From TrEMBL:
Annotated gene: mptB
Main location: membrane
Keywords: Glycosyltransferase, Membrane, Transferase, Transmembrane, Transmembrane helix
Transmembrane segments: 72-92, 112-134, 155-173, 242-264, 271-294, 329-359, 371-399, 411-431, 437-459, 471-496, 531-551
Family statement drawn from the similarity comment of this UniProt entry: Belongs to the MptA/B family.
Domain of life from the UniProt record: Bacteria
Annotated localization: Membrane
Protein name: Polyprenol phosphomannose-dependent alpha 1,6 mannosyltransferase MptB
Species, as recorded: Nocardia xishanensis
Topological relation to the membrane, as annotated: Multi-pass membrane protein
Family annotation (InterPro entries): MptA/B-like
GO molecular function, one term: glycosyltransferase activity
Length: 578
């Protein structure tokens, strides 16, 4: 018995050591988690913060630069006119009710596919070059600040001049507007567009069904109830008149662009960034001109409402002291508008999270402020969604169709591209095609990574390390890049809000380069083109582009000569710095 008691004595020190080890592991895990979320990262070490730098207020353009601005403005307008004319032949014209079919003069473009394609490609390149030249007077050169900057009115007039030709042209680069018309007509007939596709809802011989791309004819609507509610009204107004229906949907897209132009400079001033700089990258971007205006995409209305709601909410949070009744009115209005945007496309609801963290910080931080702000904004978002889903009569079927677009394998999506490349490698090695299985692995991992980045940005907003506008843009950038499907205009989900905050070359150079390259590479969707036609049009575009640059090398600011930008110029705070 005495031996047994003696053997049991060392157990206490062992337990103490075990407890100490577990406690040390727990502390390391907590420290790692806090560091991963950004809770214990000093502001100066926050990697995302390097994207932002306050911009300086500078004088207006001088006489020589005004002459160059007029030439750049005319250059961009010429490009959009060429694109609008070419759209008569290779735009996304309707299969039925094509207004140019059989018309002697206008119909020639549909018969000359190679010439029309070359005209469209040349026009697109001219617009992109004009946009890059306009950047000389908006943001200066790479890594520098402009010595002179064009005014807001000058940029607005330029943007309007470039938009007008595309706003009256047939759709370009996408047939999605015809899906909008068909799905809206299904809703107008009292059929659930979230259950039935165009073929089942309208019939295979219906004029609206015939214009929908084959891949989407049996697919239910992936859009929110507000968009289809408005679309149902358009369908009741226009009936089966495709041309009138397209024009009304384009009015909606133009309204979204107008909201972007209204909200973006106001948000940029909050971040210490010149409004003209933000508008140049976020609104005059060729992706906006070609895909939101020319392509008639509902993303324009989603982004516009999201930014407008964010501006109203930040007016309450940042500008109103004390937080009185007016502040609550602005906050509720902003949250309501953001919720409206999410009933067009659900992606924009992420903006509500950054309003939430900014509001919690304004209310003093701490768990009580976080929970109170979450309850208030969550009630607004939930109530808005419930009211629209119920009042529209469309219900909540849209929740089950959000993943519809994943049927497409997009080369611009990182997880999809990785899965496809790896699957193709397996085929080459004789292992079989396992692309589908690989996509089921890469896509969830990408979604988890995007969620982590979003949570990290929410924490950075709540702790005050990042402005809500910049954090929202970074989160949306992660979501877009890691999304299962990425279309060219999806890039604007991130580029537009980041244009109001991120000013460093590490962001602007890739954003500008990607916008320019994607805008030029995208093909019109109005004709079945052969390889030799694409090659011939591309060669013609290169020749015309090079000749144009050579001829105008002294008339346009192709080189950053004196007066355009100063790399060594240190910026001072523009407007209200964040």
């Amino acid at each position: 018995m005495r031996g047994l008691l003696t053997d049991s004595r060392p157990a206490a020190p062992i337990r103490l050591r075990l407890v100490a080890v577990l406690e040390g592991a727990r502390r390391k895990a907590v420290a790692f988690g806090r560091r991963a979320l950004g809770l214990d990262v000093p502001a100066a070490d926050h990697t995302i913060a390097v994207l932002h730098r306050d911009e300086s207020e500078v004088p207006e353009l001088d006489r020589k630069e005004l002459v160059q601005l007029d030439r750049i403005r005319l250059m961009g307008a010429t490009g959009t006119v060429l694109m609008a004319i070419s759209a008569l032949g290779i735009g996304a014209q309707p299969v039925q009710q094509n207004p140019t079919s059989g018309v002697r003069v206008l119909g020639i473009f549909a018969r000359a596919h190679t010439g029309s394609l070359a005209m469209c490609m040349i026009g697109a390149v001219v617009v992109v070059l004009a946009w890059l030249l306009l950047g000389r007077f908006a943001v200066g050169g790479i890594g520098g600040s402009p010595i002179h900057r064009l005014t807001r009115s000058q940029l607005d007039r330029t943007l309007l001049l470039w938009i007008i030709p595309l706003s009256v042209a047939p759709p370009l680069f996408s047939n999605d507007v015809y899906s909008y018309l068909a799905q809206s007509e299904i809703a107008a007939r009292g059929i659930d567009p979230y259950q039935e596709g165009p073929v089942a809802g309208l019939g295979i011989d219906n004029v609206l069904t015939n214009n929908v791309p084959t891949i989407w004819r049996d697919t239910p609507a992936p859009y929110g109830p507000l968009f289809l509610w408005v679309g149902r009204g358009i369908a009741e107004l226009t009936g089966d008149n495709i041309i009138l229906g397209v024009w009304v949907h384009r009015v909606l897209a133009l309204a979204g662009v107008a909201l972007i132009v209204w909200a973006l400079p106001r948000l940029s001033v909050r971040c210490g960034v010149a409004g003209v700089s933000a508008l140049w990258l976020g609104a005059a971007n060729p992706l906006v001109l070609f895909h939101l205006v020319g392509g008639v995409h509902n993303d324009a209305l989603m982004i516009g409402l999201m930014l407008a709601g964010l501006e109203f909410a930040l007016r309450a949070i940042e500008d109103t002291h004390p937080f009185d009744g007016r502040a609550y009115a602005l906050l509720i209005a902003g949250a309501f508008i953001i919720a409206l945007s999410s009933t067009i496309k659900i992606t924009s609801i992420i903006a509500m999270g950054f309003v939430w963290m900014a509001l919690a910080r304004r209310w003093g931080g701490g768990w009580r402020a976080v929970v109170t702000a979450a309850a208030m904004l969550g009630a607004i978002a939930l109530g808005t969604t419930l009211v629209i889903s119920s009042t529209s009569g469309l219900g909540f079927g849209w929740i089950h169709t959000l993943n519809t677009a994943s049927a497409v394998r997009s080369w611009m999506s990182l997880p999809t591209a990785l899965g496809i490349i790896t699957g193709f490698g397996g085929v080459l090695l004789g292992l079989g095609d396992h692309t589908t299985a690989l996509l089921s692995i890469t896509r969830p991992i990408a979604a988890a990574a995007a969620a982590f980045v979003t949570v990290r940005m929410l924490v950075a907003t709540g702790t005050g390390r990042l402005h809500p506008v910049g954090a929202l843009g970074v989160a949306l950038g992660a979501i877009v890049l890691l999304f299962p499907v990425v279309q060219p205009w999806y890039l604007l989900w991130a580029i537009v809000p980041l244009a109001a905050w991120a000013t460093r070359p590490v962001f602007r150079v890739p954003a500008v380069a990607f916008s320019a390259v994607v805008s030029v590479l995208q093909m019109p969707r109005g004709a079945d083109l052969e390889v030799f036609q694409i090659v011939g049009a591309a060669l013609a575009t290169v020749i015309v582009g090079v000749l144009f640059i050579v001829i105008t090398r002294n008339a346009l600011p192709w080189r950053a000569h004196a007066g355009v930008s100063a790399p060594s110029q240190q910026p001072t705070s523009y407007g209200v710095s964040s």
